[in-house]
Amino acid sequence: MHNFEFVKPSTVADAVQALAAEEAQPLSGGQTLIPSMKARLNAPEVLVSLMGIAEMQGIRHEGDMLEVGAATTHARVATEAAAAFPGLAGLAAQIGDPAVRNRGTLGGSLANNDPSACYPAAALGTGAVIVTNAREIAADDFFLGMFTTALDEDEIITSVRFPIPQKSAYGKFLQPASRFALTGVFVAKYADGVRVAVTGASENGVFRWSEAEAALASDFSAEALSGLSCPADDMIADLHGSAAYRAHLVAVMTRRAVVAAS
Amino acid sequence: MPKDDGIGASTKRREDTRFLTGNGKYTDDINLRGQAYVHFLRSDVAHGRITSIDSTAAEAMDGVLKVFTAADFEAAGGLPCGWQVTDRHGQPMQEPKHPILAEGKVRHVGDPIAAVVAETYEQARDAAEAIEVDIEELEAVVDMVEALEEGATKVHDDLSSNLCYDWGFVEENKDAVNEAFDKAAHVVSLELTNNRLVANPMEPRVAVGDYDPWGDSHTLYTTSQNPHVIRLLMGAFVLNIPEHKLRVVAPDVGGGFGSKIYHYAEEAFCTYAAKVLKRPVKWTSSRAEAFISDAHGRDHKTKIDLALDADHNFMAIRTETYANMGAYLSTFAPSIPTWLHGTLMAGNYRTPLIYVNVKAVFTNTVPVDAYRGAGRPEATFQLERLIDKAARELGVDPIALRRQNFIKADQFPYQTPVAVVYDTGNYDATMDKMLDLADYANFDKRVEESKARGKLRGFGIAHYIEACGIAPSNLVGQLGARAGLYESASVRVNATGSISVYTGSHSHGQGHETTFAQVVAEMIGVDANSIEIHHGDTSNTPMGMGTYGSRSLAVGGSAIVKATNKVIDKAKKIAAHLLEAAPEDIELKDGKFSVAGTDKSVDWSGVTLAAYVPHNYPLEDLEPGLEETAFYDPSNFTFPSGAYGCEIELDPETGKIDVLRFIAADDFGNIVNPMIVEGQVHGGLAQGIGQALLENCVYDDQGQLLSGSYMDYAMPRADDVRGFVVDHSCVTPCTHNPLGVKGCGEAGAIGSPPAVVNAAIDALHRAGHTHVTHIDMPLTPARVWAAMQA
Ligand SMILES: Cc1cc2nc3c(=O)[nH]c(=O)nc-3n(C[C@H](O)[C@H](O)[C@H](O)COP(=O)(O)OP(=O)(O)OC[C@H]3O[C@@H](n4cnc5c(N)ncnc54)[C@H](O)[C@@H]3O)c2cc1C
Fold first, then answer.
1. What are phi and psi of B553, to 5 degrees?
2. Could you read off the pLDDT of A30-68 as tens digits, one per residue?
3. Within 13 Å and on the Cβ side, how many CA atoms surround A43?
4. Three-class SS string for B121-181?
5. Which residues on B lie below 8 Å from A238 (Cβ)?
6. Which residue's alpha carbon is at the smallest distance from atom 34 of ligand 1?
7. Mean pLDDT over each residue of chain B, to the nearest integer
8. Taking the CA of residue A208 as centre, how many other CA atoms within 13 Å lie in the half-sphere pointing to its CB?
9. At what angle do helices B674-689 and B747-766 cross, to 10 degrees?
10. Which candidate among A228, B207, B411, B577 keeps its CA 20 to 30 Å from the CA of A165?
11. Which residue in the set A173, A177, A178 is minimally distant from B654, CB to CB?
12. Does B707 touch chain A (CB under 8 A)?
C-alpha cells in the first residue's frame, strides 16, 4: 500500500471540500477500496472517510419509504430494516461474512457497482432514489454498466430512499469462491406493478428483467414465470459458470425469490 | 481405560493454548535487530526471454540496499531435485536447472526475476516497481498433451523436449496386461482429470536469513516441515555452506499440507543476501504471492481401463497419465506421479496384472509437487471412480463388486503386482462399519424424502488403501530417492527426572508435542507434563527427515520408542545398582523400578538423580548421565485403509451439491490420541471435499492464473464440510513398527474425492440422468448443471 493522508470530516459539506484535493477519494467501509490499495491497484493520496458523518448514518422509516444513510453498514440494515422492509434486510444479511457486514456500507456498494454485488439489485429492484450531496438520481439512471455509475467526480452518495414494496425477496446464488452473487435476483411487488432486478449475471451489470416483471404484474406467482427464459447473449462467462448457466439461474432465482416473497 | 495422558487417551493438545491465544511463535514473529526486507519482482508473463534488466533507478531509491539479479548468484547452484526417476527405457529423467532468480528466461507467472532488499518492506516494493525489465514474450506451454506434440515450444531450451520422463510400471508386465485385456469378458474405461490444487496453508511462507560474520555462520528461520532437509539441500547443493556453519530453524508452522516440504528460492535468497549485506533479511509471502510461488498439487490427466472376467473378477488395470511438473522440478516432484502413485494402483483389490504409464511434462506453470496424499489420491480417485462405473455398466452393486475383489483378511501379507507388500488390513470390516454408521439400509427412504422436496439424493462409496509412513531408505534409494527416509530422536532425561525429547519430525499442526509425550509417558509411567517435545531446530535435534507422508508417529514415533527403550535399559542398570539386584530382575512400572518378587523399589527420579550425581554409581561399568539417541528406518510402509461413504443432496435446478453426511471408517492400526486422529481425518476430509466440489487452480491458454485469489479459488468453508462421522474402531495393527500404528494424516484427502463424485453420479442416475457417467472435479454447480443438460 502506498502512503496516503487520512481525513475524517463530520459533515457532508466538509467531506465534499476535502474531496476537492488532488487524488482524493472517499472511503466508506473500505471492504473494496482497502484491498485494492493493498494490491496497489489503487493509490489515492487522500482518503476522506465518510464514517464520521452523522447525517449519513442510520435508517429512517417514513410512511412507505425507507431511507438508509449511505454510510450505514450492512449489519445495521440486516437488523434495523427487518421490520419495515424484510426483503432489504434479508439481502443485507446475505452479503459477505460478519466482518464484511460490520464494515461494508450501502453507499460504498452502490458507488462501486460491482457486477456481482447484491445492493444494486435492491436499488434497481425497488426503483430507489440515490441521494447525493448534489442531486437525486433514480436507480434506473444510476447504474451504467460494470463498475460505472452516474456519479460525477467527487460526488458522494449520502442516502438511498427505498419505496417499501408490499412483498419482496432476494434470491442469491453464491459464486463458490467469493460468495458474491453468481446470480442474484431482487423481486419487489408494488400496488402498481412488479420490479425484477438481476445482478451477477450480465456483462452490463445489474439489469431489469422486463418479461418477468410483466408476467408477475398480472400474477405474482412462480407459475406465472414458467416458460420464461432470459437470453444468454450478454451474460458473463467465467470459470464459475457459462453464459447459458447464468441465464438459467436468472429464471431459477427469480422463481425462488417470488416464492420467498409470497 | 487408558491413563489420562498415556497411549489411547484423548489428551487435549497442549500446543493449542499457545496457538489459540495468539501466542504461537511463527517465523513471521521473528524480527532480528537491523533486519532488512526483500521483495521479489516476479514475472507477470508465463514464458519469455529476458532481454534486459535495468535497476539503476530502483537502486537509487530511498532505503534500497541492493537489487539482486541472477548475475549475483553465478556461484550458487540451482535448487536441487531430491528424486531421480528412471524412464521406461532405463534413461534418467530430464532435469533442468532451477535457478534462484530467473536466468535469461522466465518460465511461469510468479517466476522471480529480481529481488530488492530495502530498509522497509514498502520501500522494497516501491523500488521493485521501478526496475525496468524487458521481456520478449514467448508462446506459453500450458496444455500437457500439446506440450508433447512434435514442434511444441520448449519450456527449457536446453532439454530435448517438454517430456521430463515417460515411466512404465511394471514395464515387464506391459504385454501380459495387454493380453489380459484381449481376453477380458468386459472392459471398462474412464478418462478423468485430477484437478490442480493450491495448498493454501493458513500461514504463508516466510524466510529470515541471518549471518554472523565472526563465526562465518548462517541461520535461516523458515516455514518448513523439515528443517534438516532444507539445511542439507541448501547447504550442500545451492550455497555451499557446510552443516556446522548453517542452522535452520522452523518454529511453529501454521500448516503445510506438503507445500512446506520443498526447498524454495526465497530461503536460499535470504540466507545468501544476509551474508552479502551483513544484515538479517526477511521475506514474508503475501497470499497473492503464495498462489504463484508455493508448489501446487495434483494436476493429472488419466485414461484408465479395467479388464474383468465373465464373473466380474478384476483381471488387469492399465493407465496412461499425463502429470504436470510445472516449469521446474520441485524437490520431490518426480516421485509423486510415479512411486507414490503407481504403487497404489492395486488399491484394496486382487488385480493380478497392472501397468501404469506416466508422462511427466514441463509447462509454463508453477511447479507441482506433493500435496496432502501426493499421488495416492490420484490413484485412489481413478480406481474408485472406475470401479463405480464398472458396477453401473455391468449392472451390479458397487459394494458387492468391491467386496468380491477385495484382498481378504486372511490373505495378508499381500504382495501386489505393483511392488508393495501390504502387511495387514481387513477391508470387509471397514466396509461393514461404514455402511452401518451410514444407516445405508435406510438410504432408499431418504432418497424418497429428498425427492418430495425436489432434491436428488445420492450415496457414494470409496475404499482406499494408502502407503505411508515413508519409507525404507534402501528401498527408496533403489527407486531414485536422493535422501534417506529414516527418523531420529534423542531422549534427554534431566537430573530430577523430567524429560526433554528432541525429534527430527516436525509438527506443522499435527500435535506432536502432545502425542509424542503420551508415548513416552506411557512407556516410563511418568506424568506427560514432565515431558517436553522439541523439534524444528537443526542445532539441537538429531538429523531427521521431517513430517510428510503420514510418517511422524509411524517413523518418528518409532525412533522415540527406540531411544526411550535405550534410556529404560540404562536406567534399569542404574536401578539394579541402587537396589543391589541384577538388571534382569528390575521391573519398571508406573515410574517406579522394583526388584521382581520383592518390595524393594526406587523411583524414576531416584534413578535419574543418581545418573547425574553419580556418588553411589557403577562408574566402572556405566557412564553417568541418561540421554540416548536412536534412528529408526522402517522396514516397510504402513498401509492404512478405510471405507468412506458420502451422502449428498443435489439441487437439480441449479446443480448445487450439498454434502449431508460423510462417514469415514478407517483402520489406522493402534491409536495414541483418538481426538487428534479424528481432527486429522476432519482436515483431510475438508480438503478432499474441497477438491471434489470447490477447489480448482486454473490457467488460461496464455499461462495466466485465473484463480489467483480467494475471489476465484474456492476454499471449503465451515458450512461446506459438515456431517462428519469418523470411526477408527476397526484395527489391524501395523506389524512392523513398535507401536503398531499406521499413518492417519492424509487418509481423509485420499479417500474422500471419489466418494463425493460417486455420490453425485449416483444421485443423477437414480433420477434418470443415466447419460452422465463422469463429471470432472470440482463438481461445481455450473459443471453439474451442464452435465445434466448434455
Ligand atoms: C470478503 C468480502 C465479501 C464480500 N461479499 C459481498 C457480497 O456477497 N455481496 C456484496 O454485494 N458485496 C460483498 N462485498 C463487498 C462489500 O459488501 C462492500 O459493500 C463493498 O466492499 C463496498 O462498500 P464499502 O463501504 O466497503 O466501500 P469502500 O471500499 O470504502 O469504497 C468502495 C468504493 O466506493 C467509493 N465510495 C464509498 N462510499 C461512497 C459514497 N458514499 N459515495 C460515493 N462513493 C463512495 C469509494 O471511493 C470506493 O471507490 C464483499 C467484500 C468482501 C471483502
1. -75, -45
2. 999 999 999 999 999 999 999 999 999 999 999 999 999
3. 7
4. HHHHHHHHHCCEEEEEECCCCCCHHHHCCCCCCCCCCCCCCCEEEEEEECHHHHHHHHHHH
5. 706
6. A108
7. 97
8. 19
9. 50
10. A228
11. A173
12. yes
Q: Does B276 touch chain A (CB under 8 A)?
A: no
Longest dimension (CA), chain B: 86
Query: Which set of grid coordinates corresponds to residue B202?
Result: 493458513
- Domains parsed from chain A with CATH numbers: 5-49 (3.30.43.10), 56-163 (3.30.465.10), 167-261 (3.30.390.50)
User: How many angstroms separate the alpha carbon of residue A77 from the centre of ligand 1?
Assistant: 14
CB contact under 8 A, B712 and A239: yes
Q: Percent of chain A beyond pLDDT 70?
A: 100
Q: Is pLDDT of B3 > 80?
A: no
B288 touches chain A (CB under 8 A): yes
Give every CB contact of residue B170 below 8 A, 6+ residues apart in sequence: B354, B355, B417, B418, B419
How many angstroms separate the Cα of B490 from the Cα of each of B520, B550, B551, B565, B610?
12, 21, 17, 11, 20
For the cut 70, the answer to whether the pLDDT of residue B1 exceeds it is: no
Mutate which of A112, A124, A175, A183 for ligand 1 pocket (most atoms within 8 A of beta carbon): A112
B549: three-class secondary structure by DSSP: coil
Q: CATH number for the B31-138+205-284 domain, one of 3.40.1160.10, 3.90.180.10, 2.70.50.60, 3.90.1170.50?
A: 3.90.1170.50
Architecture of domain B296-395+402-470+636-789: 2-Layer Sandwich (3.30)
Mean pLDDT along residues B477-490 = 95
Asked if residues A46 and A18 have their Cβ atoms less than 8 Å apart, the reply is yes
Q: Looking at the domain covering B2-23+486-632, what would its CATH class be? A: alpha beta
Burial (Cβ within 10 Å: 0-12, 13-18, ≥19) of residue B270? buried
Question: Ligand 1: which atom is nearest the Cα of residue A151?
Answer: 43
Decide if pLDDT at B104 tops 60.
yes
Domain boundaries, chain B: 2-23+486-632, 31-138+205-284, 296-395+402-470+636-789
Residue nearest to atom 10 of ligand 1 (CA): A117
End-to-end Cα separation, chain B, in angstroms: 57
**CB-defined site of ligand 1, < 6 Å:** A 25-33, 50, 70, 74, 95-96, 100, 104-105, 107-109, 111-112, 117-119, 151, 156-157, 179-180
Q: 474531496: which residue's cell?
A: A19
Contacts of A177 in chain B (CB under 8 A): 694, 707, 710-715
Query: Above 90 in pLDDT, residue A262?
Result: no
Global confidence as pTM:
0.97
Q: Do domains B2-23+486-632 and B296-395+402-470+636-789 have the same CATH topology?
A: yes
